[in-house]
Amino acid sequence: MRFVVYLRRVIPALALIGATLVLAHSVSTHWLSTLIALVMWSCNAVAWNIASGYTGIFSLGHHVFFGVGAYTSTMLFLRAGVSPWIGMFLGGLLAALLGAAVGGVTFRYQIRGVFLGLTTLALGEVARSVAAGWNWIGGPVGLLLPMSNDPKNFIFIERLPYFYIAFAMLLTYLGIAWLIERSWFGYYLKAIREDEGAAEASGVNTYLYKTVALGISAGLTGMVGTFYAQYMLFIAPDVVFHFDVTLNMLLGVMVGGSGTLFGPVLGSSLFTALGEGLRNLPLAASARVAAGSKMVYAAILVITALYMPGGIVGWWQSRRSTRTPAREARPHAA
Amino acid sequence: MLLEVHNVTKHFGGLTAVNNVSFHLLEGEILGLIGPNGAGKTTLFNCITGVFQPDAGEVLFDGQRITGLKPHAVCARGIGRTFQITKPFPNLTVEETVMVGALHQTRNVSQARARARAILEQLGLAHKADTLGKHLTVVERKRLEMARALATGPRLLLLDEVVAGLNPHEVEVVTELIRNIRNQGTSILMIEHVMQAVMALSDRIVVVNHGQKIADGKPDEVVSDPQVIEAYLGEGALGAAS
Amino acid sequence: MTVEVALQTLLSALLTGCIYALIAVGFTLVFGVLDIVNFAHGNVAMLAMFATYVLFHAFGLDPYVSALILAPSFFLLGLALYQGLFKKLVELPHSTHIMVTLGLMIGTDNLANFIFGADLRGVNTSYTTASVVLGDISLQVARAMAAGVAVVVVSGIALFLKYTDFGKSIRAAASNRLGAKVCGINVERVYLISVALAVAAAALAGTVMMPYYLVSPVTGHEFLNKAFAITVVGGMGSFGGALVASLIVALVEAFGGLLLSPTLANAIVFGLLILVLLFRPSGLFGQRPIH
Fold it and tell me: Which of A161, A219, B226, C288 has its CB surrounded by the most CB atoms within 10 Å?
């Protein structure tokens, strides 16, 4: 890439990174928590985007992978003393294998893409009820992690270390997405997304690569699950195996910009910020507020899907090129 | 023999789309595949390239069985194809689209890009390199189909009605392109209705009707075969053959 | 497991299967004709159940009386749903279908939650607990009545599809949209009626379930999962397949729950789904692999 173009992209990115680091150091603990949440959920969105935005695989059960990651590392830590630093990768691997298995079953025989959505949605609910009924992993009450300062076991008293870890994860995830985007693998995934039949005829083993893409997406999500467990020090079926986890990824990616690099981060941050903001409002019936806000999210989802399918980033890109009206900025065509 | 089709049959429920069809193609040949609409030509292509599994019969490529292989595996053996109803990648640029084909030959993205550019140049699409697939005209889409298939480096290229809908001048341009492709070493099996192109290009022609082969031979022989004339219901379709 | 328990379970499953059929039929119809998978389909039944609940507690209306109001109302709602939304979806990519109907699902989940809260609600009619004893097994009157309604309506739809002209045009459009248009079939109207019919059928199913079933905002998800499982087991867009599959799914759920564990019933149905996807993805009556 030409050096000038390179600089124009890299400098703002570095500036943003620098600004975020400064911000993290200067704000109060409360805002730091918000920042950590923003970064953590952005990781999830980037992971989901690899399957959906790049490959056209719309998993509606990514919370299963999240939960598998969280429970694997936590159980290994609580029952076998395995450090969650290692457990994170083991959980991620298990989640990746599960993702590949789900893909392996549902991608055969050119089964409709929508079926993956329905299957993963059902899988999510099954996982939740199975986990709730499984006492060995804590049942409906969940698992608590010990609060102490135990860096070797991924537990910190201070918030700042969590921020650094989450931020490092996000940068890594973005790096992985970026590498995929510009590699042959990325071209193949996008071809699959655009037209599987044409991709196959051009030599792309669509079954294999879809399965791998889902596996990668699932594994990355699983690792965020471990981070969540270590940060919140509490996991339960109703929390980590909850559809809301997937919903956040979905909203973030669709509104931010499916198939783009930064769209998921942008969209996810918007919704996380909204959510955190709502939570801080002194409103009496917070359950109703939650329901009401979800109704608004649902409306946003429908409107975005119909009128702004490229999300915010897609819309922005289409403004700069007169050829593609926003309504047509549809990066995926499943 | 590069391609051998032996007794291939394909049913769809009660309809027998391809009925016991056999033919062969020699390396370096351009073989025309013609027949009235619904005769089973595209189905035959789909059976060869692995989109469908034949219910009976075998397909051999370079002496090896390829019957029932998945499409990407067939492509790996060296067969490329275009689709009658074009399948562009709507949200990828023309260059990116051809790169997908080129990446079959090399995993290196820059090399694939260079290869794609060369092929776009060869097929006269270089000026549209940055246009998204969904913004192309039908003519450009057909050209893109050929470019993408060619980029995979096939020994045999299956063309499905690539000159349909083109005006006579455009037909000549594409005819020349196809001839060049063959001269560079790629054999061609082409489904075509436009007799101008078929007669100009084909070394031999196979005619199918109602899923069965009714003629197989040199263009002049086939064109004067009474069964063929009858199948097309009159000399109108064959009149352009000169 | 004794013979009585087995028979009881069998009876229960058959009755449940009839209701599932009524829900699945609409789901399969919209999928087969418009090629749209409606994630909000289960929630139609859920909303109808809440509506029945309200009519009962506010006006004392028996669910079967409410059905006379609700079925037509939901039919109209279905017409509006098509005109206002699904009509646009038809030519859009499948990814958009997912997002839009998922949005509808989430929106209606939370609408119900907003108005009613998360608790389970039910109605208590005079016949809610009535049952008829047949030898060693008992037949719940409310469930039998509901199954009866379901059977009548599903049969009606089947006959309609098979023998009436409009029904045939629906089947034609399902099998080949462009071909149907070329034959002069008013495909728009086919789509419109199919959606409305699907919504009405699901609503009716919900309404007649109220005498014996409880509803909460998440009830719709169970129905969606069943409808999906039935569609996969029965075969894509196969109406007859959906009917048979409804019984199969109900039987697997009932006996699986009996033999393994009641709380694992949905996991067992999911297991069935995976098995079918693995070994016979075209379903029982599907012609070839789905697509």
Answer: A219
